[in-house]
Amino acid sequence: MSAVGYGALLFWACAMALNFHLAERFPNSRPVRSFVAMLFGVTLIVLWQGLVRGLNVSPVILPAPSDIAAAIFANIPLLWQDFAQTILKGALAGYLIGCGAAVATAIAVDRSPFLQRGLLPVGNFVAALPIVGIAPILVMWFGFDWQSKAAVVVVMVFFPVLVNMVAGLAATDALSRDLMATYSASYSQTLIKLRLPAALPFLFNGLKIATTLALIGAIVAEFFGSPTRGMGFRISTSVGQLDLALVWAEITVAALAGSGLFGLITMIEKAATFWHPSQRGR
Amino acid sequence: MRSILPILTVLTAIVALWYGAAVMLNKQWTYDQAARAGVTVTFSQVLADTMTQERPVLPAPHQVAKGLWDGFAGQKITSKKSLVLHSWITFSATMAGFALGTLAGIVLAVGIVHSRAMDMSVMPWAIASQTIPILAIAPMVIVVLASLGIKGLIPKAIIAAYLSFFPVLVGMVKGLRAPDGMQLDLLRTYNASGSQAFWKLRLPSSMPYLFASLKVGVAAALVGTIVAELPAGASQGLGARLLSGSYYGQTIQIWSALFAAAILAAVLVLIVGVIERVVLKRMGMAK
């Protein structure tokens, strides 16, 4: 191993020592918390870079972070085109349709406890199934372009959101429902003023799970056939050409998109459910 | 058991919808065939034909059931068409990955609960790692490991492990922190050491959380294995069966593989559930 590798190991040791020291000294300070997490992430990247360079790992096996960064900057138009195809068209369209349909279904079956008792176990069961498997079927039905990817995403996000929304609509306690009854509120008034707001924390839980599922669905569906653009297409063809730096560049974009979407939902959740104990506590 | 009737109603509705959709989607092909042959067909003939096509757009439920039956019971177990063989391949990789992922999750959780620095550094990144569509890199992991000469079960197990470790980690951290201050104080008055508190209080009280996340984890491990079987080159396993079905337009084969995967998932979750019930009962924690 060369000097670069030892340097990275040394940096790792120093950073970890600093982290342990900081964590013991300032256990409850928020800036320290985020600094410690940041430092840990930076350390991982430095260690990765140092070990790949120090041990002379072939770029065909694992490219160094600097190679990946170079690949990102060299291929920005290509990455943007893939991002637009997979995330903006496939994943986002499917996410909106799927979540919308799930919420609508949950509200539709809300008046019938009979249907709910039947739908909830079935939905729970289906949510645990390897739904990605229907990707080849839907690609066959809807063609190679983004519509089939959106369809896969719709099916993947539907059940987790449905299950959470049904549970959320049932989450009000008897006391608040009685209060609405004493106000002689109608069904729709109770729904809009009491039960939909009470269901929001559950709904956002489902929406957060669905963000990752949506990206996975859109990317994996492209392995079964796609036009000559899209992140899944690029990943599978670049692996064939052993251009792993480009593959990792796509993965970086996917990771940023996933974290960004997740962060966006979290922000909306903070704004919409500011009254909930889980948001007030912090 | 009072929810049996509603569940059956919903299932019946799904099957009925499915038959309806099968007729709607498959009738075009029947009409095309009839037009080519120059005959007109009555509606009942169309109905009968849509149920028995060889490569329907959407196979009818009984065709899928027959495909499943042929796959599980109608073949020798060693045959390439046997779903028993493919399910076994997928099952073994899932189990290997699930074991690895569970172990990693528990070890990390113990570390996080006992070291504040670990908690501050690892936890945010563990959460961030789950917003990454990690399944997308499955084919890359497979190809890279294959170029290193590692093939077969291990690459699939690694992906399954990555997917199953996170639910276990989160559940275990929650579970190990479940004992309240009073119980911890009691152990302190007994002058219990850290490891004693861990073995006698924290670990037992984390069991319900562990099993809840094991159920999620085992389903995730199965999804990981199936996707890991998709890249070209894999010839065995339910994922490979899906892919070859999609290449050759064998819709019944796709649907049979899909339902085999669903059955496998249900069986795995059920097994974890049974183990959960037995363990919690022995520990006196059964509800």
UniProtKB/TrEMBL annotation, chain A:
Domain ABC transmembrane type-1, first and last residues per copy: 101-267
Secretion signal, residue range per the UniProt entry: none
InterPro entries, A to Z: MetI-like, MetI-like_sf
One GO CC term, this protein: plasma membrane
Organism superkingdom: Bacteria
Biological-process GO terms, alphabetical: transmembrane transport
Source species: Rhodobacter viridis
Subcellular location: Cell membrane
Keywords: Cell membrane, Membrane, Transmembrane, Transmembrane helix, Transport
Protein name: NitT/TauT family transport system permease protein
Transmembrane segment boundaries: 6-23, 35-55, 92-109, 121-144, 151-171, 202-224, 245-268
Keyword Isomerase among record annotations: no
SUPFAM superfamilies, per database record: MetI-like (SSF161098)
Membrane topology summary: Multi-pass membrane protein
UniProtKB/TrEMBL annotation, chain B:
Pfam families, A to Z: BPD_transp_1
BP GO terms, sorted: transmembrane transport
Protein keywords: Cell membrane, Membrane, Transmembrane, Transmembrane helix, Transport
GO annotations of cellular component type: plasma membrane
Entry's localization field: Cell membrane
Main localization (coarse): membrane
SUPFAM superfamilies per the UniProt record, alphabetical: MetI-like (SSF161098)
Domain of life per record: Bacteria
Membrane topology reported for the UniProt record: Multi-pass membrane protein
Domain ABC transmembrane type-1: 83-276
Bilayer-spanning residue ranges: 88-113, 125-147, 209-232, 252-275
UniProt family annotation: Belongs to the binding-protein-dependent transport system permease family.
Name of this protein: NitT/TauT family transport system permease protein
UniProt organism field: Rhodobacter viridis
